[in-house]
TrEMBL record:
InterPro entries hit by this protein: 4pyrrol_Mease (IPR000878), 4pyrrol_Methylase_sf (IPR035996), 4pyrrol_syn_uPrphyn_synt_sf (IPR036108), 4pyrrol_synth_uPrphyn_synth (IPR003754), 4pyrrole_Mease_sub1 (IPR014777), 4pyrrole_Mease_sub2 (IPR014776), CobA/CysG_C (IPR006366), Siro_Cobalamin_biosynth (IPR050161)
Name of the protein this chain belongs to: uroporphyrinogen-III C-methyltransferase
Domain Tetrapyrrole methylase: 8-216
GO molecular function, one term: uroporphyrinogen-III synthase activity
Matches recorded under SUPFAM superfamilies: HemD-like, Tetrapyrrole methylase
Amino acid sequence: MFNKEVKKVSLVGVGPGDENLLTLKALECIQNADVLVYDNLINPTVLNKARLDAKLIYAGKISGNHYLTQDKINETIAEYAASGEYVVRLKGGDPYIFGRGGEEAEYLIERGIDFETVHGVSSFYAGLGYAGIPITFRGEATSFHVFTGHRKKGEPLDLDFKNIAKSDGSLVFLMGISNLPLIVNGLLSNGMNPHIGAAVVENGTRYNQRVFRGELCSIEEIAKRENIVSPALIVVGDVCKKDLKFFNKSKLPLSGKNILLTATRTLAEKMAIRFKETGANICEMSLIVTKEIEIEEEKLVSELNDSTHILFTSSNGVDIFFEQIKRYGIDIRSLYNKKICVIGSGSGEALNKYGVNADFIPSKFDSKSFLDEILPKLDKDSKVLMLRAKIGSDVLPKGLKSAGIAFSDIPVYDTIIDHRKKFELNKDIENFDYVVVASASGAKALVEMIEDKKELSGKVVSIGPVTTKALVELGIENIITAKQYDVEGIIDAIKKL
């Protein structure tokens, strides 16, 4: 059982990038943290798993410059821990493999601050594995050797190349792309076979992984030609001639496309599953969050008793409604005589989780189509209870009012912008081929936080015309709009480009 009163600091390795390589213990720490101090190697999808009220503090490097010095990182961890908050220090790979986790542990010990270390999957084998390169192979590489390819700024790379060049097995250099010429020269000048296999793996296991193979004598030229940047692994050995990719996505329709999902956490997670099935490389970065608005029990019971139809416009509304009736002890069977209506397939699927099937869903997933198709089924005795976001389109209330249909428009949640994601959004935006926006509130969040709107031109994919209208009004151009207003429509729109 997790008890943050006992734990003050966790030094957590989150693996090389793929969020699915998180250990169960690492995930528990992230989900319970008051403060997350993270570096440049952390996948934004991992940060998406943090509590909505957790502080996110970036402590990595940008273009070779420290955003926070190591001394400042140590002080930050200690200060928050001393104030009674549970601090999780997120580090790429494993904290104790060239990650300076040992220095942070010593700093905490010296100050009497209790901590734990949560080890993570290291890139030196997982990054290679995702590239289809086994770090060992019977009869060809029966050992491996791992080196840092990086030193403190201004210090030379002083590896013992004379002995390294004589080593059997696979040679792996971490954080060494800026020193690749020195590494290649050090090995060649000490007698290593120039035609032995070599490879570089950029962003190993992440959504934007790239792999390039060659020989020791050519790998420097390849890296320069392909503009390989950090983080990247360098591996030398004949295992580089193996190609054991465990899942070849090249034949899938969205293979190689890097796609950013900006929707709420729940929706982004659902979308990610479907996108990955098409071969896309996905990053989840929820720019908006939903905050429940509680309806007084007496009011909710009264509205339910008076209504003939209940309308949900989103899966968020469905989930919050069922949580509230559960909290109040309202028997779901009391809804037996209500017609349950939804506007989209996502809301219908959310209903199914609670054992309820929608009585009505329009042929097109938008408010106008809903009104066109539902109004002939309503009469003067009908009353529609709309359970939706606090700020929503006025199409539904105006349409019902003009048709003389009684209704109640009850907000069950508010959508707010998660400004914590601004830094990550602007740091990574150039990496994405497409940015998916699933609501008008998501459009507002994206435009409010992006620093250069030009980065969005031609790459924003909208879930439908309402969202597109919001984007246009906010100054975004060349928008791709789905014709079917759900994840399948978004995927189809991208496929046709």
